[in-house]
Amino acid sequence: MKKNVLITGGAGFIGSKLAYLLVEKxxxxxxxxxxxxxxxxxxxxxPLRLAEVAEVIVAxxxxxxxxRRALADIDxxxxxxxxxxxxxxxxEIERYTKVNVQGTAVLLQExxxxxxxxxxxxxxxxxxxxxxxxxxxxxxxTIAPEARHKEELLKGxxxxxxxxxxxxxxxxxxxxxxxxxxxxxxxxxxxxxxxxGLVFGQAYNIPTIALxxxxxxxxxxxxxxxxxxxxxxxxxxxxxxxxxxVYEDGGxxxxxxxxxxxxxxTMLAIENPREINGxxxxxxxxxxxxxxxAQKLVQVIGLDVQIQVTGEYRTGDIRHNYADLGKIKKxxxxxxxxxxxxxxxxxxxxxxxxxxxxxxxxxxxxxxxxFGLFSxxxx
Length: 379
Known about the structure:
The protein has helices at about 15-25, 35-40, 45-50, 65-70, 85-90, 95-110, 150-155, 185-205, 230-240, 260-270, 290-300, 325-330, 340-350, 360-370; strands at about 5-10, 30-35, 55-60, 75-80, 120-125, 135, 140-145, 170, 210-215, 215, 245, 255, 255-260, 280, 290, 305-310, 310-315, 375. The protein is globular, with a radius of gyration of 20 Å. The chain has 14 helices and 18 strands. A seven-stranded parallel sheet has the order 3-2-1-4-5-9-14, sandwiched between helices. Strands 7-6-8 form a three-stranded antiparallel sheet, with no helix packed on it. A two-stranded parallel ribbon has the order 10-13. α6 packs parallel to α8 (about 185-205). By secondary structure, it is an alpha/beta fold. It folds into two domains: about 5-135 and about 175-375, Rossmann fold (3-Layer(aba) Sandwich); about 135-175, no CATH class.
């Protein structure tokens, strides 16, 4: 008999696609989501469509009464409710902490009453918990560099150097044994979410998995939230025939994973019959610089859109991070399937037909400047 699944934040980008797949597989799905205007806009049509196939409770994750109601008869909890956006979190500190940390506390507190029935907890975490990814010095071996200093960034010194011998560091795949070093309030809150969940699961013998998603993209991504989703921002600007701005020197390395693969990994965590616990990277296993991805987007969509390398930077941004997928492949059988070219074409095609496209990047940048979190190198 199929199980009852609660997805907190289930009307969001990843959560909604997971919900449809679960329904297709004959699970009963319940969604708890506050339908944040920053994510869904003022006219949230997608969640209304979700209500045709799943039970939707419109409420905040910090509302204990609503959370208690949502947990009734649930077998598996997938916790995706969160405020997202590393840069914004540095000046919306109370909001991010309340939703991400206190909201998780409310969920776990209410799960106590249902602990004998709940069979599994999945937590949506983020590659942001690592801060910088893993690096290697040819002389000194594996190195975990500190966050870049503002003095270096102002001089346009973007790349890390070995703190021991001062040689250039080389980015290598980040595995789950890399010590977390969050560089934003958002990242701190995501680390707190996964640690709280893992401690809770161990205490009450509930198998708990935290999935550290890399940069998830794809059709259905919010085009209204200028604080996340670099590829959605690039698409919005390309559609408007505006230049695509690339920060720093464009050499930042990222791992872009299609939402279909992110959902696949989440489903594997849900359906794995073994009692597996711990953290798992979810990515493509491939690395691209941000400039390479901007160029690839322009190439696959076939538009004459200018790319501008701006020399600008945001406080809290990291230089390099891409995933080592060895653990999730071994334990969950995960294999990424969707390549970047296909994903970019799909994203652009969808975004071009979306009537709600709003490019709010300029206003978001002005907010960052107001708090001294956005600058340009003096090159």
